[in-house]
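User: Here's a chain of 190 residues. Predict its fold as tokens.
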Amino acid sequence: MQLASEQMLPVSQDLAWKALNDTEVLKESIPGCESITATGENTYDVALTAAIGPVKAKFRGKMRLADIDAPNSYVIHFEGQGGAAGHGKGQATVRLEAVGPQQTRLLYSADAQVGGKIAQVGSRLVDMAAQKMAAEFFGAFNAHLALRYAGGQAASIDQTPGATAQAPIAAAAQGSLWARLGAWLAGLFR
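Assistant: Prediction complete.
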């Protein structure tokens, strides 16, 4: 499976790089992610639940960052096991380009191989699930960027228990369409 695209991020390149290396932001942005735990320098254990067609499973895996050129690019190597559902491994190249003082283009390309029941689902369903997960990730990621860095400045975020999901929606309304959509989706699942 191969996947490549680009996204516009509503922050400077330095802030985009910082967010891409913040495990809490990534955990909250990756659909179904339960944990991202650092196990060494640029290595992480990841746990997530994913559904690909009729196959839904918990995946446990490892992620390693390589070829790091801060704040421009890196390569992510990943592998994971989902028990009887199957396994996957691959790599993704992520590159950032400054477009303006408060806008960054993120370009990515990923190449992954899957096996087990996941592979039996068919490449079309696997590709559709990967595209859906990418869209959900960038929606949530842009919402986090809009919340944390409104206008490039650190935004205050209400961390009080019981804070409504309307706060992220209102803050993201000033951001891109992806940010507004991501905030809306995140509000549905809180």
